[in-house]
Write a structure and sequence with these properties.
- With 287 residues, the chain is of the alpha/beta class.
- The chain has a single domain, classed as Rossmann fold.
- Helix content is 43%, strand content 13%.
- Strands 3-2-1-4-5-6-7-8 form an eight-stranded mixed sheet, sandwiched between helices.
- Helix 2 links the parallel strand 2 and strand 3.
- It is globular and about 50 Å long.
- Bound molecules: NADP nicotinamide-adenine-dinucleotide phosphate.
- NADP nicotinamide-adenine-dinucleotide phosphate binds next to helix 1 and helix 4.
Length: 287
Amino acid sequence: MSGKVCLITGGTSGIGAAVAKILAKHGEKVIIVGRNLEKSIETVNQIKQQTGNQNVDFMLADLSSLSQVRQLALDFRHIHPRLDVLVNNAGVTMFRYQETADGFESTFEVNYLSHFLLTNMLLDTLKASSPSRIINVSSAVHIAADIDLEDLNGRKKKYSALNAYARSKLANLLFTYELARLLDGSGVTVNAVHPGLVKSNLGRGGRSFSSRVWRIVNSFGSSPEKGAATIVYLATSPEVENVTGKYFANLKPIRSSEKSYDVYTARKLWEISEKIVEPNTTVSPAS
Ligand SMILES: NC(=O)c1ccc[n+]([C@@H]2O[C@H](COP(=O)([O-])OP(=O)(O)OC[C@H]3O[C@@H](n4cnc5c(N)ncnc54)[C@H](OP(=O)(O)O)[C@@H]3O)[C@@H](O)[C@H]2O)c1
């Protein structure tokens, strides 16, 4: 693999920045998605300096805005005729209930819905570039989650940051498995990853008790480079060229929760998500 076009969301920090740096070191063309101009410029400059690869760039989009995600996909398609690797990595954990301007619980929109939209809008480019790969960054925490398809914002229950985060990560898995079914035979693979417990900026800034607990837990995490390893493996290794619809940790496929394999829930979540992000931007089961 060399000179492949790789798009990484959440590339300005933690695991995403490490993935971007490693792929740049491999000689790939790396484009990170950031929401902050200064941070994006700084990250790109650092990666160029540290790897010697000048083929590194950024695109700006706040993933808590569906219109910005839509614009990101349109701009990407306009600038780049191909896409070999899409890493849906950006993520947040919100320690209090917050809705985006689109009206969705923030964790759900940033971690899942925005990536659902981005991926669907880039599918034609990925198919035209096949063999190509999609990697969705989930988390082992998904195991604690349930999805109420009639209450995706989780309003029926008292808000819990852990539940909201786990729900978004279960949604990533349901999305991965449904997309793998839809993309069967297309030459585009899609897999999900648990990167392990990694020391990063995730959950920084909150003042609540649970945010302090999370920061303590997080401080025992491994390096972002270690967290990036399985993502880079899925993005580059010939060993997994034809592997799709799997959940990986530590470079190995593992089983995710029973709920994540529920085909009915996955299809329904897809249909609901499709309606939310508007028609004509997603792949249909028949295609
Ligand atoms: N760390 C862990 O132990 C762990 C464990 C399991 C799964 N994960 C997953 O790994 C992924 C990467 O997380 P991390 O640990 O590397 O955390 P991180 O250091 O906080 O990085 C998160 C990245 O997402 C970006 N991001 C957050 N909200 C965004 C938004 N609204 N629009 C655009 N970008 C946004 C951040 O941008 P800024 O730089 O601008 O903040 C940052 O680049 C996440 O999906 C996370 O859920 C992490």
